[in-house]
Amino acid sequence: MKIxxxxxxxxxxxxxxxxxxxxxxxxxxxxxxxxxxKKHPKDTAAVAAILxxxxxxxxxxxxxxxxxxxxxxxxxxxxxxxxxxxxxxQTIGYSISGNSKESVQISDANTFNLVxxxxxxxxxxxxxxxxxxxxxxxxxxxxxxxxxxxGSVIEFKYTVRAPFVSWMRDWRFQYSxxxxxxEFSTAIPEYYMYNVMQKGYLFPNKTVETKSxxxxxxxxxxxxxxxTQTSFSTDKTDYFETKTTYTIEDLxxxxxxxxxxNIDNYTSILSFxxxxxxxxxxxxxxxxxxxNSVVKTIYDYDDFGPELNKTGYFEDDLKKLLxxxxxxxxxxxxxxxxxxxxxxxxGNSSYGCDVGVRKAYKEKTGNSAxxxxxxxxxxxxxxLTANPVxxxxxxxGIALFPNRTAFNYVIAAVETPNGIILLDATSKYSSPxxxxxxxxxxxxxxxxxxxxxxxxxxxxxKASNDNVFINYExxxxxxxxxxxxxxxxxxxxxxxxxxxxxxxxxxxxxxxxNENNKIEISDYSRTNExxxxxxxIESYSFKGDNLTEVIGGKIYINPMLFYTKTENSFKQxxxxxxxxxxxxxxxxxNITIKIPEGFAVETLPAPAVLAMEDNLxxxxxxxxxxxxxxxxxxxxxINEAIVSVEKYEMLKEYYQKMIAKETEKIVLKRI
Length: 671
Fold this sequence. Notes:
eight-stranded mixed beta sheet, alpha+beta, 37 strands
């Protein structure tokens, strides 16, 4: 009898447990257990976690608008630490196309706290909702949930209705915090075909089901005659709808690593783009099945191809500008500098013009397309073979699949007998083949007038130099006086110019002093700050009281002073993403050290040479004594802009050995 009772108890316990684990999350049903949880069970360092996120995109039909795409998303987030408060601030972007735009509605947005053992709910009020226009193509709605504390659980739901169906909203499975469960479903009528593109290394489970649906439409007819009569008829159209559900659980936080161009490239994300439309009894209309289809569609947009054909607004000015200039290189540089100085970039990235090239030229401001399509048109007008190149900026991710949303930027290219020259007039410090860093993102897509296209490698092959000359002397107390001369080329020079642009000299010098062991700088000068084809040169004298250690009458010094690398950027045991330096580079140091009177060298670092396989990089360290002076020569060279994961261990070991050598000290003793 007792055995039977025990079996019944176990059955009900198991049944209750299965019900509990199988139950779906519902907005508003926050449990005491969720609020009491102090840390994430699988990631104790997490500042917050997404307990669940559920979304669905589906199509509704009405006789006025036809099919309308609706996306509903509901999310529950647990806040563990103060550092997780930022997750109470959420942003939902929306697209704008002409007079149409996506509508965003916020609902069921609440904060839950445990107060006196009971669940307390605080609703989001209207003053916590903000609508922010960004450009004529894009806006965003922001919410800031109230009364957030350590231990809070927040929830919110939003609905987006789109009058256009060209693409669905991306679905992100992974975030910088753990995700316990994420589910997304699409319900798509048979008339629409979408390309589904997935990024990342974690793949969701997928289920597909098809069901029949019906569109009911009503038509009205009026009869003519003495008495007008109105009659109504109802038509029914049957079609199939395919529902696809993507589900994944226990996703770890996506961890950013050093030298990653955009972590989203490796994050688990689904993207959807309309590839074809097939209405009954009509031919299939394709949009983006391959890159040629994509670029043809983009070229035909009113704010792209037609803008390239407008020339009347600049022709007279350009003719005067190029009088007497015939060499192609001179024409390219002259036109590039003219556009840079004439039209200012407004900070918005797009391959479609915002105000249009004519208005941008007149008002002297425009987005990336206004400026660089104008540049392309001028170069063509000057007799050069110039074409636009579609680009995905680093912040937008890598363009992996043929689709129109893969790109968000455009630059210009000139085809010459010596190769293609890439140009971007949005940055005042760019030059031929020296693009803004945001545009250095793997490959772009060049579009020619005839509709053909080809992939263009955007990554630099030429090394950018950073040459540092240091001459300093040490006194008997270990104080250092010296001079620095630093010369930078290409991307290093552009980076330096951007760093000092618009910054007052005293503010810049204070920062430089603080970053370099609190040195004191004097006799500061700058050369070629604006001459973008020449190397930048920075010179100054310095004094430092904290650059050496004096112990037991001996002086210990890092010979590279404040240029010494002390920490390896590559610490991960296993690297998941390529190392993206942006461009190849060569760092050189030539250092002369004067030994103080009454001292002699006790210890010198030994010379060293490190060379990685496949000519990936080289490190050379040489030091020699000449009477009371030391001569030090150091070279650190990386020959590839992007280093594959397979070479990570080699790169990590290289940096470890380089830093170990750079941090070896010179020891001076009294004589």
